[in-house]
Amino acid sequence: IDPTVFAILAGFQNFGSSIGSILGVQLTEAFGVQASAAGPCNFDRLGDLIIVTHCIAPLACLPLTWCLVPAARISDEAAFDLAPPPPSFMSPPASPA
After folding, report:
1. pTM value?
2. Is the pLDDT of residue 50 over 70?
């Protein structure tokens, strides 16, 4: 299970990094912040952008934890009684009833 959990977490991290980069570029353009080595730079609304991206956006994500995090513990056997995990090809054959 550990390699599977690691792979899932790594995939979520890569996905989150990509989405964060895309949203960062969109917000930077929306706030009019420009940084260029060759052209003019505009950092007039950089403070507003930092407040939105480092304070408001993370606080807006907090309510999602009640929707996305399950109310079961890993050691909770009752959660598996409702929906047992699907068999894999490494599962032993079913015992006769």
Report:
1. 0.60
2. yes
